[in-house]
Amino acid sequence: MALGYVRPARPDEAGEIARIQLTTWQVAYRRLIPRQVLDELDAGWLAERWREAITAPPSPRHRVLIAIEQAEDSSQATAHPVGFLAAGPADEAALAPGEEPLAVDVVAVTDLLVEPRWGRRGHGSRLLAAAVDLWRSDGFQTAVAWAYDRDPATRGFLGSAGWEPDGARRALDVDDLLVPQLRLHVDLTPEPAEPNAG
């Protein structure tokens, strides 16, 4: 039997987060991002950036969450980090070209990745659900996330959770190759409770 859960990431997990990021990018984005760019990414440098994000975030509303799969059998229990989500108040990276800054009640997802071999086991949904609860408690009203045009998996996953394109588009310059992205958004305000009939 396998159990999955989400919690805040710890500093000693920065290396695992970097490994998940590299592995996922190399598998999921190999047709979008030039191979030499993926090959040149440095796991140590990424791990240090994640350590900083966990130990010294720019604000208390910047968070890194990690998804854990815990396998249980009669002899031992093992836990594996399998994905992560990073988000915080929207900044310039969340803007489309020429767009005015987003409101202070907008949170931007910078990363939402589940290692491919652990996909389709509910980890992405658990990460997103845990993040939404935290975003609401932090006072955010809207969430945004950029997705590659040619990444139907991310677009489909967010779409199934109610996210929709908001019309903003941009193209990232990756080693002289323009990679188009579109931005999705979702309203975080809770649905009003249904009045009791009767």
What does the model show?
The chain has 198 residues and is of the alpha+beta class. The chain has one domain (2-187): 3-Layer(aba) Sandwich (Aminopeptidase), CATH 3.40.630.30. It is built from five helices and seven strands. It has helices spanning 14-28, 35-40, 43-55, 123-137, 152-160; strands at residues 2-8, 63-72, 77-89, 106-114, 142-148, 164-174, 177-187. Strands 1-2-3-4-5-7-6 form a seven-stranded mixed β-sheet, sandwiched between helices. A hairpin with a 4-residue loop joins strand 2 (63-72) and strand 3. Helix 1 (14-28) crosses helix 3. The N and C termini lie far apart (43 Å). The mean pLDDT is 90. Keywords: Acyltransferase, Transferase. It comes from Planosporangium thailandense. Residues 20-189 form the N-acetyltransferase domain.
Total number of beta strands: 7
Q: Can you give the helix content as a percent range?
A: 25-40%
Strand order of the largest sheet: 1-2-3-4-5-7-6
Element order, helices and strands? EHHHEEEHEHEE
Averaging pLDDT over every residue, what do you get? Answer: 90
Oligomer classification: single chain
What is the end-to-end distance?
Answer: 43 Å
Could you say which structural class the secondary elements and strand pairing correspond to?
alpha+beta
Q: Which CATH architecture?
A: 3-Layer(aba) Sandwich
Count of alpha and pi helical runs? 5
Sheet with the most strands?
A: 7 strands, mixed
In the residues, how many domains can be counted? 1
Query: By CATH's scheme, which homologous superfamily applies?
Result: Gcn5-related N-acetyltransferase (GNAT)
Return the CATH class.
Answer: Alpha Beta
In terms of per-residue confidence, which ranges show pLDDT below 50 for 5 or more consecutive residues? none
CATH topology: Aminopeptidase
- Identify the overall geometry: globular
Rg, rounded, reads: 18 Å
